[in-house]
UniProtKB/TrEMBL annotation, chain A:
Keywords: Signal, Transport. GO terms for biological process: transmembrane transport. It comes from Paenibacillus arenilitoris. Belongs to the bacterial solute-binding protein 1 family. This is ABC transporter substrate-binding protein. It comes from the Bacteria. Coiled coil: none annotated.
From TrEMBL, chain B:
The keyword Cell membrane applies. Belongs to the binding-protein-dependent transport system permease family. It is a multi-pass membrane protein. It is found in: Cell membrane. One of its GO terms (cellular component) is plasma membrane. One of its GO terms (biological process) is transmembrane transport. Pfam families: BPD_transp_1 (PF00528). Residues 74-263 form the ABC transmembrane type-1 domain. PROSITE patterns: ABC_TM1 (PS50928). It comes from the Bacteria. The chain crosses the membrane at residues 20-37, 78-97, 109-130, 142-163, 184-206, 241-263. Keywords: Cell membrane, Membrane, Transmembrane, Transmembrane helix, Transport. This is Carbohydrate ABC transporter permease.
Amino acid sequence: MAYKKTAAAALVSLSLLASACGNAGTGSNAEDANANKAAAGNKASTVSNEQVTLKFYSYNLAIASQIPGTEKLIKEFEEANPNIKIDAIPVPSTDINAKVQADIVAGSAPDVAQLTFDGLDFAVNNFNAKPLEDIVPADELQSNFEGFSPNGMKLGQLNGKTYGLPFTFSTPVLFYNAKLFEEAGLDPAAPPATWEQVKEYGLKIAEKTGETGTHVGGATGGDWIIQAIIGSNGGQALSDDRKTIKFGEPEAVEAVQMWQDLIKSGANSKLNDGEAIEAFSQGKVGMLLFTSALQSSFVTASEAGGWELKTAKMPAFGDKPTTPVNSGSALFILTDDKAKQQAAWEFLKFATSERGYTIITSEIGYLPLRPAIVDDPNYLKGWVEANPLVKPNLEQLDALQPWVSYPGANWKQIETILNDSVSKAIVSDGDVVSIMQDAQTRAQALIQ
Amino acid sequence: MEKVGRNAGFYTAATIKHAALIALALVAVFPIYWMIVTSLKPESEVFTSSFIPLHLTFENYANAWNAIPMGRMLGNSMVVAVIQTVMQLLTSILAAYAFTRWEFRGSSLIYGLIALTWLVPFQVIMIPNYVAISDFGWRDHLAGLIVPNIASAFAVLQLYNAFKSYPKTLIEAARLDGASDWGVLWRTIMPNLKSSIASIGILLFITSWNDYFWPLLVTTKLENTTVQKGLQMFISSDGNMWGALMAATTIASLPVLLIYLLLQRQIIDSFVKGGLK
């Protein structure tokens, strides 16, 4: 009997402890509940000076090195808009779609979310993202985006409406190691401009220095670099009417064949992307095509390792125009509440303003979509002079192409099929034509 | 002569066995060694392959500690893992006792159902669980992390097998001596199955300590979440902060290591017994 009592008491006290510990957290759930009620009651209300709190999911806040810059952006916005409070919640980029989806089901969706561009179609059709055209009067929208990169506006558009404003994004740039170039008898001032030269230089570096010649990243973990390479050869991943998968067409196949040839010839490493990033950081890879967001960590590594880091634009297929595709994310307004939508628009406006992009570029490590601020001493002029490596990246913005999102609920599977098929094709001797056509057939079947 | 030869053979065999075990132990320990060494290297040395830090620094620990609310996260992880483990052990001990001690109608059906829930992937029940937790108002609360996990099918199955192997005659003898069911469970069975329970306990603790996805869904603020979510913050597609990551990982693995050291005797006992069966 005594044991029975003790055990029962232990059970009770443990569950009490559990709930007590739970309550020790912030009271944000109660706030959520109140906010939701307010949201329901406020639907018809218009803009006012009432206090508005925006629940904002951001993946930059889930990356330790990017927290200070992102917090600064939010703080400056709150200071300029005392009636708007940002309740910023960190969610890692790989899990942010699952989290938003779960929260929509649970009735606690974020008001503003930072989502990657490959999920644009899904965000519009399943997360009920709101187009800016429905929230902001046309003339205000137009005047706000004066000076904005025209290509940049297209990144977050679908069916002619703007759902996402480009927030933190990057482009594929060619990083190269000037020291290895010199050792291989190459001129560091003349980086390769075409894929043919990449192969030639890569072979030379491998032969003369014994290190890895080059590495083209992006075969795994999202298809934006694949889209950029296919596009540069005149191909497409998806047709313009968004109905037909095209990565099995001859232009796309040819682009992947070039990639396979780079590896087969020995110019390109057989490392995976993570290994290649580390090997490049150690000064053991001649050239690396990858996201420009890696720049600051490469600068640190090159200074520590005693070699010079240089950057160049993405290489071309002969004289065809290159089509750098952006990676990264846009800000989406998900709330149905009118007052919150207006507050969210204010936040989006600030984040993509001259000042916003200045913080994003210089303190978080991404790119500005207002070209003029690069030469403006009030904004980025001084920073760009101190960080000249960013220049090829800025030049690429003129040719920037949107990261195409696949339609329907299977978008991620289609992207994975492309990633997997390209990975399979480039590291094997396999027939690229049949691999890519098979991938196209399988992906097409997933489009509803 | 014959004896010497056999001795020599015995020693050679033992040497080979030990050499193989030492080599395997090194393979097992090396990643931990590399983690600690990397955590003590300055940023400029992280990418070098030196086996010892040339310039010893604790900078990474300071960085990791300051970049995220590490203390709070460790505390949360500890509270969640300890309560969850104790609750899971309690519920599974009671269930295992019921299944072994009493024969009641539908017992094998219930046991089968419990076994089946073990096979259901977390992703399937994730959203319904999350909606339920939200309805209780437990989002961003540690209760939301603990309560859905107070019973573990894995622990029930494991303990049921351990209980089943316990001689029934001893239980019956205790009953004849007038012991109640509680008496039999806590005074007769428990002391004899301590090592099995301890080894299952540490497995449950590690599972709970390492859980990432459920805390990711349930908690939003960094102050209310567990340390695994914090570790993720040093990893990103735009470059990993290796030094800080290794420092944070070293800190995060200390509690598990400590608990293992405390329960080492029991765990080895249980593995030895399990191996003899």
